[in-house]
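Kelch domain-containing protein 2: C-alpha cells wanted.
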Amino acid sequence: MDEEMAEDVAARGEEEEEDDDESEGDEDFDWIVENDDDEEEDEEEDDEEEEDGHLVTEASETFEVDIPPERSGHIAVVDRNCMYVWGGYKNAVNHGFFDLYLPRNELWEYNMETGVWTKRITGGNLFTSMSGSCGVCVDGVLYLFAGHHARGNINRIFCLNLRAPHLTWEEMKDLKGLPPSCKDKLGCWVQRNRLIFFGGYGYAPQGQHRGTFEYDSSSLVWNSPSRGWNNHIHILDLETSTWSQPVTKGNTPSPRAAHACATVGNRGYVFGGRYKNFRLNDLYYIDMDTWEWHEMSVPQGGPSGRSWHSFTPVSEDHVFLFGGFTTERETLSDGWLYCASKNEWKPFKHSHTESPRLWHTACSGPDGEVFVFGGCANNLLSHQRAAHSNELLIFNVQPKTLVRYCMQVALQHRERLASNWDYLPKHLLHSLQQRAGRVNTLGS
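Answer:
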C-alpha cells in the first residue's frame, strides 16, 4: 500500500446556508480534494460540487498519540475481546472549519480487558479513506462495504483478516450477481455467513434492482450525478461470492439512510433513519428465513425520531438504542432498551446524559457492556465547529457475570490476594493480569 497519507486524505468544508433539504443524505459538507491546479481557488462550492478546492493534507496533522483521534462517520467491529475502529473524519488543525478523512491504512484496536488502545498499520489495496461505510466482522474477518470518499460514493467491498500476523486489505473482486448501487450510510445484518445490506443514500441504481429508489431534490444539480434514498436489500453470500436480492413480502419500510440495524436471531431489525425531511422513529424487522417484513409499533412516549444513532444487540432478546439526531436538529444522549420478544421499550438510565452523540459507533462487549466511541457531540449541521469526539463511553447494559464480580473483588484487594493468583486457571490468571495492568482507559 502507498504509505503517503497525504494522497489518501480529503478535506471537507463547512456547509453553506442551510435549507430543510440539507441532511445526512449528502453529508452537508463541501468535499475538498487534492487538485494542484486549483490551490488558489477561493470560490465556495455547493454540496455536490466536489472536484475543486484547497489542498489540505494529513502530513501537517501527523503526530504520535496513544489514543485514536476524534472522528465521526467511522466504523467499529468486535472480534474476540477487541474492538477495531477504522475511517471517518475529524477536525483539521489550523484549517478553519475544514475536516479531514482519517488515514486509510490506520486501524485502532481497543482491548476490552485491559482498556488499552493500539494503533495498527495496514497494507493492501484499500484505495481511499472514507466515511459512512458499513463494517461488519465475521469469523475474524472485517468486511468494509460502500462509503463516501472525496469524489463520491462507491459500491466496492474490501476484507481484512484481523487475526492474521500482518493486516492486509484485499478487495473482493469477481463477485457474481448484480451488486448494490454506490451509496453510504446503510445498515447490515449477518446470518449464516451472509452479509445482508439494507437502505442507504447514493446514486441511482444501474440495472433492475428490487425495491424503491427516490431522488433527493436537493441533489438535482446540472452536470452532477443525482443521489437519493433507497430501501433495497442486497445479500452477499460469502461462501459462493454471489450478490442477490430476495423477493420480500409484507409492509416494506420507506427508503432511508443513517438508520441503524440489529440482528436478533433470524430477524433483521431496522430503527429510524432519514427520509426526505424527516427523521423517523419507526421499527421494522424482516424474517431472514421467509423474507417477510413486519412493522412493530413504537408507543407514545417511546424513543423519538432520529438518524445517525446506534442500535446494538446486547442479548438474545434485547437491543440498546443510544443517541442520534432529531428532525429538530437536536443531538441526543438518551438510552433505550428494546425487548424483542415483548415488543417493549424501556428508558435506560445512565451516567452519560451530558455526552450527546451522533454518527458514533457502538459495540457490544463480552461482559454485558456497550462501548460507544467517537461521533459528534453538537449539531453537525450548524455553522459552529463540529465537536467530533474520541471519548469512549461505556454502558453497563446487562448484569455483570459472577466471574466479572469476582475479578473486580480480586483486583480491589490485589495486595492481599495476589499471592494466591497463581492457583487460578491460566485463562483467568491472564485476564486478571491484563486488567491489573490496564492504562489509558477512556471509559467511565
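The first strand starts at residue 11 and ends at 13. Helices lie at 402-412, 414-417, 426-436.

Cheers.
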